[in-house]
Every structure is written in C-alpha cells, then in structure tokens.
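FW: tagging you since you asked about this chain on Friday. Here's the raw sequence from the shared folder, copied in full. Didn't touch anything.
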Amino acid sequence: MNELSPVFDRAAARIGQLSGHFINGAWQRGNAAPIDVIDPATETVIGQIASGGATEVDAAVNAARAAFERPEWSAMPAAQRERLLLRLADIVEQHQDEIAAIETLDNGMPYAIARQMAVGSAISSIRYNAGWPRRLNGETTPVSVPGNWHGYTTHDPLGVAALIVPWNAPFAITCTKVSAALAAGCTVVLKPAELAPMSGLRLAELVAEAGFPDGAVNVVTGLGTQAGAALVAHPGVDKISFTGSTATGQSILRESAGSLKRVSLELGGKSASIVFADADLAKAIPGVAMGIFGNSGQVCAAGSRLFLHDAVYDQFLEGLAAFAAKLVVGPGTRDGVHLGPLISAGQKSRVMGYVEAGKAEGASLLFGGDAPAGAGYFVNPTVFVDARPDMRIMREEIFGPVLSVMRFSDTDSLDDLARKANDSIYGLSAYVWTQNLAAAQAMAKKLRSGSVKINGSGMEFALPFGGFRQSGLGRENGRDGVEAFTETKAVMVGWS
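HL: got it, structure written out here
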C-alpha cells in the first residue's frame, strides 16, 4: 500500500466538498449545470465545480467593491495586513500535505513536486509579499514652481482586482497573485482555471480561516468563455492580472481597451537554452532536461529551444538521453514518479500534433515522441535534433515535454547566437550555461528576454518576472509585482 494513500483519501474527500462560488465570505451554489473536474492521470471524474457567469461575477465584484470601501479594509493599518498574510502563510503550511495532494489529483503533477513547487513556493510568495504593506512608500520630490511646496508620491491601491489563473501551477500562481493584490490593499475576485480549480477553492477556505474581512477575497468558478469573459468585461473591475495563453491575453487586452482597465499579462514563451563548449555538463544536462521536461513541459518559461555547441554536442545529447531514460512517467500519486500527465485529452492531442509536425518538417527524433499505453494523458520526454528556425516546433509554444535542438560553433559570434535565440515572437526567459562569466554577462545583455538564468534555473520572488514582446505586459514578483496593483499619486502641499 502506498504510504501516501491516507493523504490522497483526505484530499479526495475535501475535493468532493469543494463546490460553489465563494462570495462575500459565504459559499453560494450556482444555478447552471456543474462542470466535471477530471483527474488527468486516470481520466476519471473527481469532483464538480459550479458554472458561473455574469450573475455570479457581478455579485463577487460588488462584494469586493464593498469590502474595498469599508474602513475595516481601506483603513486597516499596513502592519495588520502584513499579519493577516503571514497568518495565511502559516495556515497554508499547516495544510501543506493536503493541498499538495489536491494539486496532484486535480492537476496531475507528482506529489513530491506538488508539495515543493506548488505549495512550498506558494508559502514563500505569501510570506514575501506580506512584507510589502509597510514598504510601499513613495518619494519626496523637489518642487521647482514658485512658492513653498512639499512634493511627494504615494502608491494607492487600484481597487477590485480580477485574478485569472492557469491550470499548469494553479496553487502557486494563485497565491502569488492573491497575496500581491492584498498586500497592495486591493480586494480580489479570483477565477481559477476550470481544468484545475480545486486548490483555489481550498485557498478561499483558508483565507476565511486567516481572518480576512468578508469580500476581500472572492472566488467564481466556471468556463473562461463565460465566467472569465464576464469578469474581464465587468465595469467594476479596476485591474486584471492574467496568466495564460498569448491568444487569450490579446483578447483580454482588446476587451479592456474600452474602459482602460489596468492589465498585467504573463503569457507564452519559447525560451532558449544556450550551452557553450565550456559548460559544466554535470549541471547543464539535468538543468536543461528538467527545464523542459519538468511539470511535463507545461511551464511558460520552459527551455524548449536548445542551442548546443559543436564541441559538446554528442556528449551532451548522450547524457540527455541517459537522463531522460531514468525519468519515470506515471500518476503523481505513485512513489518515485518524476513526470505526471498533461492536463487534458486536448492538450495531449495538441502536443502529439506538434510531434508529428516536427517529423513532417524534417526534424530527426532522437528519442520519445510517443505516449505510454493505458489511461491518462501522458506523453514521454521527447527530443528533436536537426531542427531549423522555420519549423513549427522551433517557433510555436508546444507546452509539453518536447525539446528542439540546434547546434552552433565557434564561427558563431555572440551577436549571431543572440540573434538566433531572439528569433521568436516571445521573450519570457532564457538560460545560459558557461563557466565564462564574461561571455555569460555579455549574452544576458544581448538576449531580449524578461529573465536570464546563468548556470541554473528557479524562481526568486524578490526579482520581477515577465516577458518581452508577446510574452506579456508588466511584471509579477518583487516590488514591481505589488506596485502593479497600485496607482502612483502625486501630492503637492503649499505653505506661505
């Protein structure tokens, strides 16, 4: 018997209880037909969520507006907001095992990864953002107009923030957005992804337990085309923070233009990994591998394009194949699994379609390109070599465990290499592997990417995260991530 079975039993029971919208501190049932939630590892129904639309969104936005304007929230001392967020982090930590199991059943990611990445990073993000309420200071600015003046700025909360989160790392992304918005003094309407909504609903319970005022955090579940669209269009929303596909982000931007809502978009990526001849392959091989295979490739910042120096080309690919062969693909509820399923049948079909496109366009399949037999939306780690810049697998975001490899040599200058890496409509992340820090710093300067990781990867909440070009607008994390939920106000005080 799996020693984690009791944890999953408790999580499954909790999932069965999580149904309805959380509005103004209370659970409300929807009137429309519920939506089934599928375990992607077994293809079985594990629960249902309410199918919200304009009526539920309107109630949630109104509750958030009323909470924002009440002195209980608007006049709350910054230190108290900090204490509430820290208490929320503590409560999440107390339920870490259960939430990780919910994420595994709902999203499919292996339990150990869910516990570390989904919940562990969520706790870190809440605690990091908890420090900002007392640090959102403005500036004192010299004033040059005639007379005696004192000029200063403040960062005022925008108001009601609509947070629309994706399915690939739902709890971690939800906690980052929610804690940043609350730290800035906003109130929230959260719309979880319908494919993985359960950890967001569980968070609503924990927010209430932490003592946040009713209406400070509201959750409406449903389809993106219904609940999500109604939330984006609602005139009572002041700020939209969206993480997801570039196409949906573009649609949100068009819809928000009429009211000039403030918008942050964290969108797609086609990130480049560059391995130089002097790279430490003992670190670079697993780093590149998990940079694309981790979370089964369902990561916006996945390093899906690999530029590999001729001098280490064969050795690197041999090591990469050996590393991938040891990765266990299977249900995240099992011990020892490294890679879980893709989120849905549609996503699996999409990824396998790109595999076929890669073959048809002339790339060589080094390994993978297939799916394990049986139930579940699994795809094995896949690597193409002999890729060309014009191929779809090199240009389009696949969002699966598929890596495309191109080689370069000493005849390629750093400028040449940067042009190849920058040859994308995206610009979210980039990864450089070399022991020559001068070359690494030079590449970091040339890469048109929102973040550059040298000899490693990972998320640091003190640093902003976001992308260039069609990878989005604005930044999350760090000071930028909290200030994104504020407006800057200029004040001039005159005296005789």
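FW: The radius of gyration is 23 Å.
HL: agreed, and The mean pLDDT is 97.
FW: great, closing this out.
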